[in-house]
Specification:
By secondary structure, the protein is an alpha+beta fold. The protein has 2 domains: 2-91; 106-335, 4-Layer Sandwich (Deoxyribonuclease I, Chain A), CATH 3.60.10.10. The chain has helices at 2-22, 35-40, 42-62, 67-91, 120-129, 142-154, 226-239, 275-278; strands at residues 106-110, 134-138, 159-165, 174-180, 186-188, 201-205, 212-217, 245-250, 273-274, 300-304, 308-315, 329-335. Strand 1, helix 5 (120-129) and strand 2 form a beta-alpha-beta unit. Helix 1 (2-22) packs parallel to helix 4 (67-91), helix 3 runs antiparallel to helix 4 and helix 5 packs across helix 6. The longest helix has 25 residues, at 67-91. The termini are far apart.
């Protein structure tokens, strides 16, 4: 009798935990330690649950004593996997098509380089291949930024270079952005702290018709940084409530984490739309490169305010072996009509 009672309690607790993991926004728990990490890896969680379902099904078939217990857990795990798959499918498993670039369109490339790991040539080649107007490079030093800009200038694609570094101890505490000279000159306040632990750079145009550019690097939601991570997301949401803003970089967060920070169902964060979300690419993982993209976390984003419409986006998987643990993301934005 007691064993049955304990088994029932365990089954109910498992069901409750998986309901929270599947849709933590329902309980306002999407930024809670533990849950925030699990929901980042929806694809991996769904795959792990399905493997558990297969094992539990086998146990249920082979053990009369464990049949009801294992079968109940298998049903719960299958429901979790199915719900996770539904969520991922609504976000999109990849639609890499781009419209033909027109006058006024802006191509944005972002790549967390893990401390300059891919090298200047790889970064410049990728930017040139895609005719990038804005290149945001979290964990990238000023020296690397200038090397990339020199290579791009030699290919007749000159770029301004700006870097914000919180210190020179670690390359992860530098964020660099390259901006096409065709967009005009930009100013960066290197004295003002932005995101809490790792720098996000705000480039303000001298021409007020041009977009403000935010090169993003929020801290990861790890032990000891959860408060800073939530503060970083709040700061990013405020940037998204500005006018004519483009944000790109390593947000260290997924769409699930923004439920309390969005200004409406039409927006992803603040008053920004997410390029991956509106082009059916938001289930494609950008980190880590060691995992297949469908099992990874989509934590690198390109976002923009209502002055821009996304006309193409893709996660670049061809550079997984170039040294970084992040995949580059590419988006094309067109002025809203």
């Amino acid at each position: 009798m007691i064993q049955r009672f304990l088994a029932a309690i365990f089954i109910l607790a498992t069901a409750a935990a998986l309901i929270v993991a599947a849709w933590p926004q329902l309980f306002s728990l999407e930024q809670t330690v533990g849950i925030a990490q699990v929901v980042s890896l929806r694809g991996l969680s769904a795959a792990a649950a399905f493997v558990a379902v297969l094992a539990l099904t086998l146990i249920a078939l082979l053990s009369a004593r464990m049949h009801r217990f294992a079968a109940s857990l298998a049903v719960i795990g299958l429901a979790f996997s199915a719900l996770s798959l539904v969520v991922l499918s609504t976000r999109g498993f990849g639609s890499p098509g781009f419209e033909t670039k027109a006058d006024g369109d802006v191509t944005v490339l972002s790549w967390n380089t893990l401390g300059d790991a891919p090298g200047a040539s790889a970064i410049a080649d990728l930017a040139l291949e895609n005719d990038a107007d804005i290149v945001t490079l979290p964990e990238t030093t000023r020296e690397m930024g200038f090397e990339v800009a020199q290579l791009m200038a030699a290919a007749d694609h000159p770029m301004w270079v700006h870097t914000l570094a919180y210190d020179q101890v670690s390359k992860s505490r530098s964020t660099t952005v390259l901006i096409s000279v065709d967009l005009g000159e930009y100013d960066v306040d290197v004295q003002t702290r932005t995101t809490s632990t790792l720098p996000s750079l705000v480039a303000t145009p001298q021409d007020p018709s041009m977009p403000t550019i935010v090169a993003v690097h929020a801290v990861a939601p790890v032990r000891g940084e959860m408060t800073n991570w939530r503060t970083d997301l709040d700061w990013l949401a405020e940037q998204c409530r500005g006018t004519n803003v483009i944000l790109a970089g390593d947000f260290n967060s997924t769409l699930d984490h923004y439920a309390s920070l969005t200004d409406g169902a039409d927006f992803a964060l603040g008053s920004c739309t997410d390029a991956a979300s509106v082009t059916d690419n938001a289930a494609i993982g950008t980190w880590p490169t060691q995992l297949p993209s469908l099992l990874g976390a989509p934590i690198d984003h390109v976002m923009s305010t209502s002055e821009w419409t996304t006309t193409g986006m893709r996660v670049i998987e061809s550079h997984d072996g170039f040294g970084s643990d992040h995949r580059p993301v590419l988006a094309m934005l067109s002025p809203a009509q």
